[in-house]
Design a protein that fits this description.
The structure is a single chain. The protein is an alpha/beta fold and 160 residues long. The chain has a single domain, classed as Rossmann fold (3-Layer(aba) Sandwich). 41% of the residues lie in helices and 15% in strands. The chain has six helices and five strands; from the N terminus they run βαβαβαββααα. It has a five-stranded parallel β-sheet with strand order 2-1-3-4-5, sandwiched between helices. Helix 3 links the parallel strand 3 and strand 4 (81-85). The N and C termini lie far apart (57 Å).
């Protein structure tokens, strides 16, 4: 379903099953929902016809899981920011590894979209800023580990 956006408001595409917490939270937010899709395939079609500032993808969409939809949705809307809504127990270490600016729980999503200032700040930060912040954290971790004589090892377990 596509709608005409109001001037100056954040344009959002919601990819979530009908009646899901994600869909209900966004419907109450001060944003313009320009399209809603129950799965990734329909979202990809909708993104061909609307411009979105933010695409909110529920991990629990039917068919292809939300995290797997992100790759082809990025191609359909390269300028949009993507948020993956996932249960608290599902948290990969780095959202950018799955193509999202953030991975949030439904309650965190409610906080982001309810406050226009928080949402504007989230949308204003570029993907490069997120990557830069992440690499700064990793650099500090390596420095902390070196200070106590540890080193970060990648790959298989090397305790043997």
């Amino acid at each position: 379903m596509s709608r005409e956006p109001e001037s100056g408001r954040t344009r959002v595409v919601v990819v979530a099953p009908p009646g899901s917490a994600t869909q209900l939270i966004v419907q109450k937010a001060p944003v313009d929902i320009v399209a809603e899709a129950p799965n990734g395939a329909q979202a990809e079609k909708a993104l061909a016809f609307v411009t979105a500032d933010l695409v909110i993808v529920d991990q629990e969409v039917p068919g292809i899981p939300g995290v797997e939809c992100l790759e082809f949705l990025h191609r359909a809307a390269p300028a949009a920011r993507f948020v993956l809504v996932a249960p608290d127990e599902w948290t990969p270490a780095d959202p950018s590894q799955v193509g999202a600016a953030a991975i949030v729980s439904p309650s965190e999503l409610a906080e982001i979209v309810a406050d226009a200032r928080v949402l504007a700040g989230f949308l204003g930060a570029s993907r490069e800023e997120f990557v830069e912040r992440r690499s700064g954290v990793e650099r500090r971790q390596r420095q902390d580990w070196a200070a106590v004589g540890w080193e970060r090892r990648s790959g298989t377990d090397r305790r043997s």
